[in-house]
Structures are given as structure tokens and as C-alpha cells.
Write a structure and sequence with these properties.
alpha/beta; Rossmann fold; 4 domains; six-stranded mixed sheet; 38 helices; globular; Nucleoside_phosphorylase_sf; Nucleoside phosphorylase domain-containing protein; catalytic activity
């Protein structure tokens, strides 16, 4: 979001704020268009400035930053009058009002007046941009029938100097790019029927987008009949002038007066440049037809103004004014502001070394004990690079921050997940880094946290990639890769990458390695799930965590915390699905919520998350979701909390819908309804203890045909499994499930997505019937899985969506498409093997239909993983051993 700065005058008036450039237009519409174009040209740090001078309507002003030719950060204010709906907001009075209010708040050595104008003597030449070098005001006729004329004071040498600098040697490529952009803008409007008619009739023409010094006539009123003016002999000398507007003369006149008499608010040596571009013929009757061309004209102006300010103009700084370098700007926006809070100073990393050594796996051949301080020393070597990968809450950014604190080399820390992209996005960061690289005298260590968020933001955008590329034809991912490639000779890179993000483009991390691998030894550290280890290692992890994060607690409190924590994350509870993996954020949470966790009795994960959400007021999100009238997984996925909390809040939202299902059926059908393992878990807690569950179930049965077919089966499964098996409602649900499954013929399933959904529906209904004692349907489904690979892969797609926290389309899985590459992780494979072995150990035999279904699911997962590759590392020997053990148990050919 853009920030807003309040700027109000004191009793004697405000002291104007100095900025490098002030750009102003009389119309707010033109100002807004111009700012949008500047943003596309790399101007950044947009800030809305509210101003209200005594007795005046105030400015509509916004402040932006840009990088000049000397690689310094400059600031410009772009403004207009706050209101433009009234015709009185144009002409002499409006020009004076605008300049007066600007001078109360801002002061600069360089002013630029921009705006759309009409063509006067000649026909409109779209694409031309004029630097006004001569300006005359034509007022009403006197008693002799003659128009009165007066000339404004314009410093022609300044205008000519700007023109010469733009066209100077060395700017050929810049001008070619400007002309190319203007031509593309003009080509886009050719298809407009009314505009093409005017082009064919010769009333307007297209140009190559040139800039020229031009002459401008200012009329104080809207022209009603240009032909009559052109026929007036008293205007013969002006008939070949270029453009006409209503304010340029007055701006020049008032500006020259302010310089002479008001040095407090306007420097005597300040300069004014008037830049205009024609969009119409000055015929009032035609203006409404050419409204679209106003945007084109403002775009043309922006091309030259943006290029001139950032690539050509030589700014001068006074003795007391100091501008920021790109490095200073990065430090002001990122660096220590982005560092995560550490519970203990990084001067002694011994306990942190112990903690991370329990979960870190590295490719470093040294064999030395895990040492954060040694990693920091290694970063002084320009031929080294470090990539830390993990999942949500595993602590990769804490580890990166510790290495940063221990690093003695010149360094900079940037967390791409914390960037305010509306003000300072990836493009700005990359530009500043490139300039930092050019100016750096020696080696530099760049700490880049959460690089995966660059991919995530790209994937979550609504526009296609090619629509989001900048003027250089690059999207954010390409910009980052370009920095890694261009700057590797002076920069050492330390990177964290969250490999478990939704929609993560795992190809990105491969490309990162390729870019920096050419002349660097890349050390990779993978942070694993503590839950995949034995009880002793879990205990060591918890004890170490307590010593780090509970230093201010008493020994009794620490002991109580450790005992409760070990209960929650014990292997036994993991087997009971109480918790899936250890989340670093959740562990930190435990350390802060004493009342919740310093209890003698055992707490399950539902109670912990419930109290956490209540403490963080996340339940309010549910009410907000209901008010929105629609919700999707992306909305919940962006909540600032971990995966457990997102699932909890989504479950609460779904439960609220079900409480008044008759009213909310349309809302349910519009929502991006889905179930995952975590959501199912929390829904079970919400429904199992609810006195409303039977009423909810009866309402669902009553309106079952109104519920969308793609979610009907999941709702029936979800509600029915929380009913006791001997009551009337349970019997009714079983009957409906039986009717639904009998409508699906497994031998007549097509290949489109609708038929893929039928396979999932059959699977869900069959599992529900099996739970109530009828395994016949599930046995038929398993037989189809054994003989038909399409059934196996559709089943796998459901499994992946339900358990993996990622989104897989059925088309991806069934078609084994290239998009699957890198989505299957070793953790998924490990967890699936673990789950199946646990089911067997609990006494279910290998001939059980549900067990065999899980077995074929696992076989499909292994098949896809082998074909597409894994996105992370895994203990292949252990998995191979488990798989062989299962093949023998199920009497299958291990080679298959």
C-alpha cells in the first residue's frame, strides 16, 4: 500500500520541503495518468501527500523517487489541483492557485509543467512532444476588433539546452527505445473506428515520436470555433504556431513573478520547462471522440520526461542538501529493518550451532561440526556461495540472520518477502543492486532471504507473465537471475529459499545455482523436519530450544515447557496425526504464550492452535470472509500465520457456513471449497463436539441436489464420519451415499476432467461405506487401480492435494506433464511410506482394500517422482528399503 504523509502549514505558513523536481499539471486526470506511466518507467517509493493550504482546495500530490545518471536517489513531486470537475479549475486563476499552493509546500530548482494540448495551425500529429520555447497569450478582441496578444517570459536557452542534451551523441539507443514505445502506443489506437476515420480523412496523422522545440498559444477560454479564429487577419502571425492550451502562458508568467518577489518559496535561479503533447484538433465537437488519445499523449510526454530526469539531467545539490546513494537507499529500506528478531545476541552461537546441527544437512565435504561463525568467515571468500533451503517455520531465515550478524565483510540483508512492492519492488531493488555492484570497491556479501517469494508473487498475479514484463522485457524472476549473473564477480551470495511454498517454481532454484555456479563453490544446507527423527533427537531439539528462547524463565517453568512440548511433538503423537511436523514459528509461539503451554495437562494441537488464533484475533477473519460473500484458498494462503492456523481459520469459516446452510448454499458453491488433511482434522474437532451436527447433516441431505456436484461428495464424507453409526441420520447419509455411488459406472469413465472427478467421488463414497462395514465398493475401486494407471494417477492427484499443502491439477498428474517436475518432494514420499508402514503396524492386513489403496497410491507417487524428479533431498536408501519391504508384504514384483 502507498503511504500517506500529512503536510499542513503552521501559523506563519509552512516551510517548503525541498525536492529535486516538481512536475505539475492543471488536471488531476492528467497527473494520475502521468504517475501510472512513471511507475512503469521505474520510478518508485510512491507516497500520497495530503495538503490543504488555508482557504484553498489543496493539492493532489504524490511523491516518487528515481535514480539519476550519477546513481543517486532523487525525489520528485507530481501534483495537480485536487479538484478538476469544474471548468473554472482551468485558465489564469487555476494556474495561479496551483503554483501558489505548490510553493507553500514544496520548493525545487527544477519545475516541469506537463499537459495535453490541441494542435492549432496545422493538423494534429500524434506522437510529437513539444518543449515550449515561445508562448503568447491571446485575449478577447478590443474595440477595434483586434485580438490582444502578450508574450510570456520563457528562458529559451534552457529549453534549447534540454533539447540539445536529449539529442546529444550517446543517446541514440535511448531515443530509439522512446520512439519504439511511442509507436507501439500509437499502433494500439489505430484499430479504434473513429480514430481510423480521422486518420483516413487527414485530420490527424501519426509521427515517429519526435521531440522538438515548439510554439504555444494560450487562450483563456475553451475554443468554440477554431476555423473562425484562423480566418481572423489579426492572428495571421500565429497561424503556423504549433499548439494551443489554456494555462501555459499563465504558468510561465506567474513563475517568473514568484522568482523575483518570493525567494522563500521559489529559488531565484529555479527553472521551468513546459512539456506538451497534442491529442486533439481544438474542435470542441471532436474532443469527446478523441478522449482515448489524451492517455496516448500523456504516455508520450512520460517517455521523454522520465528519460530526461533519470538519464540526462545534471542535478545540482546545495551545500546543505545531501542525496542518498543506492547503497544508502537499500539500507534505509531493507538491511537491519528486514532482519528477524533474535532471542539472543549472535556473539555466541554455540546453542544455535547445536540446535541447527540437529536438523541441518549439508553438501560441504569438510566433515567439521556445524558452525555458524565458520559459515560467516567462509562468506569472505568471493568464490563461495550459500543456499539454505527448508520449509515454513524450519528456521532458514533465523540461520541466515545469524550468519549475517557474524559476518565481518561489507554486507547487506534483503528479505524479498518483506518488500513493500507498491513502493519498492523487485525491479527497484535489482536496479539499486546493479548500481551498488558498479560502485563497490571490493567484495560484498549479499544476504537474500525468501527468494521463493519472487516466484510466488509472480504465480499469484492475475496477469500473464508477458503482461507483467517491464520496458526491458523482463519479469521479476528474470531480473533476480540477471543480478545473480551480472554481479557474481564482486558479490558473495547467501540465499534462503522456502521449498514448501504453494505453487513454488522449483526450476527457479536450479536456475539460481546455474547462474552462480560458474565461478563459485555453492554450499547447500537443507533444514529437515525434526519429526522425522527419533525420540532422543526430538528431546535434544526441545531442550536446546528451551535454553535459547526461555532464558528468562525459572527452571520449573522450563521443565514444564519441555515436558509439554515433548508430548505434543512426540513420535507417538505424530503417529496419531496430532502434528505433522515441527514448525519453527509455532515453537517460538510456545515460548511466548506461557499460560497456554505452561500447563501440567497434555494439550493437543487443536487446543494450541485454537488459543493461538484467539490470541491473534484471527477468528475475525472468518467474519470478514462471510461478509465478502466469496472466499478462496489464495485468500487464506496469504494470512500472516503458519499452515496450521490457515487450516484452522478456513475450518472455522466452513463451519459457520454449515451452521446456516440453507442461507449459505450459494456462498458455499461460489467458494473455492477444498479439504486438506489439516482442515479435515480441525473440522473433526469442530463437528464432533457440536450439538448442531445432526441438524447440519439433515439440512445438507434436504438440499443435497442444490450443492455443487464437485464438492457434494466431500461434504457428505466430512459430516457423516462425525456421526455415530447407530442413529437415524447416519443411516440416511449411508443411504444417500449408496445411491450416489451406484450412479457411477467404473467401466464407463471418460478421460476429461469431469470424469476424473467421478473417480474421486467414487473413491470418497467407497471409503465412507467401507468405514460403515461395506468394503465391496472400495475393493472394486482398488481392482481398477491395479489394472488402470489412469485410476492410479487420479487417485494420486487427490492424495497430493489433500496431504501436500500444494495445488496439483488432475491434468498435470494424469498427463505426467512437465509442470509436475519438481513439485513432488522427498518429504511427501517419506511421509507416504511412513503412513503406510504405520497402518500396517496397527494391525490392518495387506489384503485390506484400504491398505491396498494406500499401497497403490505410494507406487504411483514413486512412479511420478522417478519420472519427474524430486524437488528436495531424501534418504533414498531408507525409502528403497521400506519400499522393498512393502512390495514383499503385498506380494508385488519389486522391480515394477
Amino acid at each position: 500500500m502507498m503511504s500517506t504523509k500529512k503536510n499542513t502549514p503552521g501559523k506563519s505558513g509552512p516551510t517548503p520541503e525541498y525536492v529535486d523536481c516538481i512536475i505539475f499539471s492543471i488536471l488531476k486526470e492528467e497527473k494520475d495518468l502521468f504517475i501510472d506511466f512513471l511507475r512503469k518507467k521505474g520510478f518508485f517509493d510512491r507516497e500520497v501527500c495530503e495538503t490543504n493550504a488555508c482557504g484553498h482546495s489543496g493539492l493532489s500530490a504524490e511523491k516518487l523517487s528515481f535514480i539519476d545518471k550519477n546513481r543517486k536517489i532523487r525525489t520528485c513531486v507530481v501534483c495537480s489541483l485536487a479538484r478538476n470537475e469544474n471548468i473554472k479549475e482551468m485558465g489564469n486563476a487555476a494556474a495561479y492557485k496551483l503554483l501558489y499552493i505548490i510553493s507553500r509546500f514544496y520548493k525545487s530548482g527544477f519545475y516541469i509543467n506537463i499537459g495535453v494540448v490541441g494542435a492549432f495551425g496545422a493538423k494534429v500529429k500524434l506522437g510529437e512532444v513539444f518543449l515550449v520555447s515561445q508562448n503568447v497569450c491571446v485575449t478577447k478582441k478590443d474595440s477595434n476588433g483586434t485580438f490582444s496578444q502578450s508574450t510570456a517570459e520563457i528562458n529559451r536557452s534552457i529549453v534549447q539546452s534540454v533539447f540539445d542534451k536529449i539529442n546529444a551523441a550517446g543517446h541514440e539507443e535511448l531515443l530509439r527505445q522512446i520512439s519504439k514505445n511511442i509507436k507501439a502506443r500509437l499502433d494500439a489506437v489505430k484499430a479504434d473506428r473513429e480514430i481510423s476515420t480521422l486518420l483516413a480523412g487527414g485530420e490527424i496523422a501519426l509521427t515517429e515520436g519526435t521531440v522538438k522545440c515548439g510554439t504555444c498559444i494560450t487562450f483563456p477560454h475553451v475554443l468554440k470555433n477554431k476555423a473562425e479564429l484562423l480566418s481572423d487577419k489579426s492572428l495571421d502571425t500565429l497561424k503556423e504556431w504549433d499548439i494551443v492550451d489554456m494555462e501555459a502562458y499563465y504558468f510561465a508568467d506567474w513563475f517568473s513573478l514568484m522568482k523575483r518577489i518570493d525567494s522563500r518559496h521559489c529559488f531565484p535561479k529555479s527553472e521551468l520547462l513546459i512539456v506538451k503533447s497534442p491529442s486533439d484538433t481544438c474542435e470542441e465537437a471532436l474532443k469527446h471522440k478523441l478522449k482515448r488519445l489524451r492517455k496516448v499523449a500523456m504516455g508520450n510526454i512520460s517517455e521523454y520526461v522520465a528519460a530526461y530526469l533519470s538519464e540526462i539531467h545534471e542535478f545540482t545539490d546545495g551545500k546543505t542538501r545531501r542525496t542518498m546513494t543506492c547503497e544508502e537507499y537499500l539500507r534505509s529500506k531493507c538491511d537491519k529493518k528486514h532482519l528477524p528478531r533474535l532471542s539472543r545476541a549472535a556473539s555466541d552461537t554455540t546453542d544455535y550451532d547445536t540446535l541447527f546441527s540437529l536438523i541441518a544437512e549439508t553438501n560441504s565435504p569438510s566433515g567439521s561440526p556445524f558452525s555458524i561463525s565458520q559459515l560467516a568467515k567462509d562468506m569472505a571468500d568471493i568464490h563461495r556461495a550459500l543456499i539454505i533451503t527448508g520449509g515454513p517455520g524450519k528456521g532458514e531465515n533465523i540461520l541466515l540472520a545469524l550468519i549475517y550478524e557474524c559476518c565481518a565483510s561489507p554486507k547487506l540483508y534483503i528479505d524479498f518477502n518483506k518488500l513493500d512492492r507498491e513502493r519498492c519492488g523487485v525491479e527497484t531493488i535489482c536496479k539499486c543492486l546493479l548500481h551498488l555492484f558498479e560502485s563497490a570497491s571490493g567484495n560484498y556479501v549479499l544476504f537474500l532471504a525468501n527468494l521463493d517469494s519472487v516466484v510466488k508473487k509472480k504465480d499469484d498475479g492475475k496477469k500473464k507473465d508477458d503482461e507483467k514484463k517491464d520496458a526491458d522485457g523482463q519479469n521479476d524472476v528474470e531480473k533476480v537471475l540477471n543480478i545473480l549473473d551480472s554481479c557474481k564477480d564482486k558479490f558473495t551470495f547467501c540465499i534462503t529459499y522456502n521449498t514448501n511454498q504453494d505453487k513454488t517454481d522449483c526450476q527457479f532454484i536450479t536456475e539460481i545455482k546455474q547462474k552462480i555456479n560458474a565461478n563459485k563453490e555453492v554450499v547447500e544446507i537443507t533444514l529437515n523436519n525434526i519429526c522425522s527423527y527419533n525420540e532422543d533427537k526430538v528431546a535434544s531439539y526441545v531442550n536446546c530450544y528451551a535454553s535459547l528462547f526461555l532464558a528468562d524463565k525459572t527452571e520449573a517453568e522450563k521443565s514444564c515447557f519441555i515436558e509439554n512440548c515433548r508430548h505434543v511433538i512426540s513420535v507417538e503423537d505424530a503417529l496419531k496425526k496430532e502434528i505433522k511436523h515441527i514448525d519453527w514459528q509455532l515453537m517460538q509461539l510456545f515460548g511466548h504464550f506461557d499460560k497456554m503451554f505452561m500447563k501440567a495437562e497434555h494439550l493437543n494441537i487443536y487446543e494450541i492452535i485454537s488459543e493461538y488464533c484467539a490470541g491473534h484475533r484471527l477468528n475475525e477473519v472468518v467474519a470478514e470472509a462471510m461478509q465478502r460473500g466469496n472466499i478462496d484458498r489464495k485468500y487464506f494462503g496469504e494470512l500472516e500465520c503458519n499452515v496450521y492456523c490457515r487450516a484452522f481459520v478456513y475450518a472455522r469459516y466452513l463451519y459457520q457456513i454449515l451452521l446456516d446452510l440453507e442461507k449459505n448454499i450459494s456462498l458455499l458453491n461460489r467458494s473455492d471449497f477444498y479439504l486438506s488433511d489439516f482442515i479435515d482434522y480441525f473440522m473433526h474437532h469442530l463437528l464432533s463436539g457440536s450439538a448442531e451436527k445432526e441438524r447440519i447433516c439433515r439440512t445438507l441431505l434436504k438440499h443435497i441436489d442444490e450443492v455443487d456436484n464437485n464438492i457434494r461428495h466431500e461434504l457428505l464424507y466430512l459430516l457423516s464420519k462425525n456421526l455415530s453409526g447407530d442413529n437415524a441420520v447416519s443411516g440416511e447419509v449411508k443411504s444417500v451415499v449408496r445411491q450416489r455411488i451406484d450412479q457411477i459406472n467404473l467401466n464407463d469413465i471418460g478421460t476429461d476432467e469431469e470424469n476424473c472427478m467421478k473417480i474421486i467421488q467414487y473413491r470418497t463414497y467407497a471409503l465412507r461405506l467401507k468405514d460403515s462395514g461395506n468394503a465391496e465398493y472400495l475393493q472394486l475401486f482398488v481392482e481398477k487401480m491395479k489394472t488402470d494407471k489412469r485410476f492410479r494417477r487420479v487417485n494420486l492427484a487427490f492424495f497430493l492435494n489433500y496431504y501436500s499443502q500444494k495445488e496439483f491439477t488432475y491434468a498435470e498428474v494424469v498427463g505426467m506433464s512437465k509442470e509436475m517436475k519438481g513439485k513432488i518432494s522427498g518429504v511427501m514420499l517419506h511421509n507416504a511410506l511412513y503412513k503406510l508402514r504405520r497402518i500396517l503396524r496397527e494391525g490392518m492386513n495387506a489384503g485390506d482394500a484400504e491398505v491396498r489403496m494406500y499401497y497403490y497410491t505410494l507406487k504411483s507417487l514413486v512412479d511420478v517422482a522417478v519420472r519427474t524428479g524430486l524437488s528436495d533431498k531424501i534418504d533414498r536408501a531408507a525409502c528403497a528399503g521400506w519400499m522393498q519391504e512393502l512390495d514383499i508384504m503385498f506380494e508385488e514384483d519389486a522391480a515394477s
